[in-house]
Amino acid sequence: MANETKIAILEAMCRLCESRPFSRLSVVDIAREAGIGRSGFYYHFTDRNDAVQWLSRSAFARGIDQIGRTLSWFDGHYATTRILYPFKPLIVAAAQDAGYSGAEHSYLRHRRANLCETLGMRGCEITDELLFDIEALAASEQHMTNAYIRGELGDMPPRKFCELLVGIVPHALLQATKP
Q1: What range does the domain containing 168 cover?
Q2: 122-152 as b/e, with b when 16 or more CB fall inside 10 Å?
Q3: Is the residue at 169 inside a domain?
Q4: 152 touches 164 (CB < 8 A)
Q5: Considering the entire predicted model, what is its pTM?
Q6: Which has more pLDDT, 105 or 58?
Q7: N or C: which end of the chain has fewer CB within 10 A?
Q8: CA gap 135, 140 in Å, rounded
Q9: By C-alpha distance, which of 82, 79, 141, 73 is closest to 107?
């Protein structure tokens, strides 16, 4: 039930972002649009940034964080993209908001840590070269994702976008995460 309410809040935020900037989303408006009370919003999230971060963390946990563990590179990216894609207006609006600019650095730290943890679980030694590949991949994924959500890659379906993401994975990382 809690996740259903969180999703309803995010869907409300997404609808509101189609007509106003992220910075102009008030908790009162979000709660009204979601059909809950203001306290209901605060029960689940501390603020609108927290809501978007929860969405991202949830999508990562079920997708890219599982790459090399339970999912292939494509399946991990595709799972994450399928979760986030319906919230594209919200994600674009949040990414354009100056108050949400820390998300990029948070993503990069999370992605590096997750890949290092996955490789460690697989018994791989993290060499300087492999660490360079991890850093470069995380930055490249972030850059491509930003371009995708801003529409700079055209009206590309999620499956095609995920194929592009898999195409940039360095060979050493592909080899280290093979099933």
Answers
A1: 49-176
A2: eebeeeeebeebbeebbeebbebbeebbeee
A3: yes
A4: no
A5: 0.91
A6: 58
A7: N
A8: 9
A9: 141
